[in-house]
């Protein structure tokens, strides 16, 4: 069977990583790359045709395309690919707003095409393990999911704020880990760096099954943190997605005889286990799953409909921050 013919549009910071993975992906040939500037600042092309538009890329007889252009251009590029019958994976967020995301989802559905969104955190080994163990009953009932995503300002981001750039990761992974949609959000944002868009957000949410959530995201911390804490009936998972480590803090089975301490703690401290897990590159796993989806094989992709829901929740977060109200979804 011939390899799939893939294209890449957008050769910025994320595009270079997608190009590296696509160039070595089994069963796929990266046949051409494109950027509206006509430039290849990170040397992604490596002898392949370097084009300057999605239309030129489509002329390369593509099976599918990776879209890594700025978010503001997602709709135009995605609709052109859909019209041409080209499957596509689109970097997150799916679009700058819900109407745009809906247009993309509708266009691919009408053409019967495979579309996915690049929410890469789903493929982090620590979170993959956490979800599998939750489904296995290792935590029992899940009570709360807390995420912290903090770090210095990334110069590469200019067209969206911290909610749509970073918090969309946490919206998606939280809903995915628990397999439940958000039912409500309440948020506060701050604008501290003099930019047009928010650079800090604190979100309190609830999933449809009653799980409560909390998300602290900013571009103003002098350290980098990517932590998800999932607390349940039997203990808590701590997933560090920077190191791809998953640690389990079990509730203790030893009765605390000191009444004052027992009454205060609610549960006692039990064993702590850091799991030994396979750590494959999340971006490679993401591309393998999309390739398999295009081939009609069993796969786990972030569907366009799921990407659309993430944008809806992100917009609800911003609405809550601007109005001071809890937004029901």
TrEMBL record:
Start and end of every Gfo/Idh/MocA-like oxidoreductase C-terminal domain?
132-329
Which InterPro entries is this protein grouped with? Gfo/Idh/MocA-like_OxRdtase_C, Gfo/Idh/MocA-like_OxRdtase_N, Gfo/Idh/MocA_Oxidoreductases, NAD(P)-bd_dom_sf
- The Gfo/Idh/MocA-like oxidoreductase N-terminal domain sits at 5-119
Pfam families found in the cross-reference section: GFO_IDH_MocA, GFO_IDH_MocA_C
Q: Which GO terms describe its molecular function?
A: nucleotide binding
Family note: Belongs to the Gfo/Idh/MocA family.
This chain belongs to the protein called Putative oxidoreductase
Q: Which organism is it from?
A: Mobilicoccus pelagius NBRC 104925
């Amino acid at each position: 069977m011939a390899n799939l013919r893939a294209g890449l549009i957008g050769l910025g910071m994320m595009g270079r990583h997608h190009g590296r993975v696509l160039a070595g992906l089994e069963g796929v040939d990266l046949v051409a790359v494109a950027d509206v500037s006509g430039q290849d600042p990170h040397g992604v092309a490596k002898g392949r045709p370097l084009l300057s538009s999605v239309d030129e890329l489509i002329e390369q007889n593509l099976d599918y395309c990776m879209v890594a252009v700025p978010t503001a251009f997602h709709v135009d590029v995605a609709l052109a690919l859909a019209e041409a019958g080209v499957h596509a994976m689109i970097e997150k967020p799916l679009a700058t707003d819900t109407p745009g995301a809906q247009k993309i989802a509708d266009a691919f559905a009408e053409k019967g095409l495979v579309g996915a969104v690049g929410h890469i955190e789903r493929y982090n080994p620590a979170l993959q393990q956490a979800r599998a163990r939750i489904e296995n009953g290792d935590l029992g009932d899940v009570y709360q999911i807390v995420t912290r995503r903090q770090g210095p300002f990334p110069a590469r981001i200019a067209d969206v704020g911290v909610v749509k750039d970073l918090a969309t990761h946490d919206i998606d992974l939280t809903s995915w880990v628990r397999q439940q949609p958000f039912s409500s959000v309440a948020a506060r944002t701050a604008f501290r760096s003099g930019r047009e868009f928010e650079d800090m957000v604190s979100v309190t949410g609830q999933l449809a099954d009653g799980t409560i959530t909390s998300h602290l995201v900013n571009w103003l911390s002098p350290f980098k943190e990517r932590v998800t804490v999932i607390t349940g009936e039997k203990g808590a998972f701590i997933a560090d997605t920077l190191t791809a480590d998953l640690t389990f803090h079990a509730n203790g089975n030893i009765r605390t005889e000191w009444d004052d301490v027992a009454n205060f703690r609610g549960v006692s401290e039990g064993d702590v286990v850091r799991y030994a897990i396979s750590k494959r590159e999340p971006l490679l796993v993401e591309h393998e799953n999309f390739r398999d989806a295009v081939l009609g094989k069993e796969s786990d992709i972030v569907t366009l409909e799921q990407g659309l829901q993430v944008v809806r929740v992100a917009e609800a977060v911003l609405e809550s921050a601007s109005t001071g109200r809890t937004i029901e979804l």
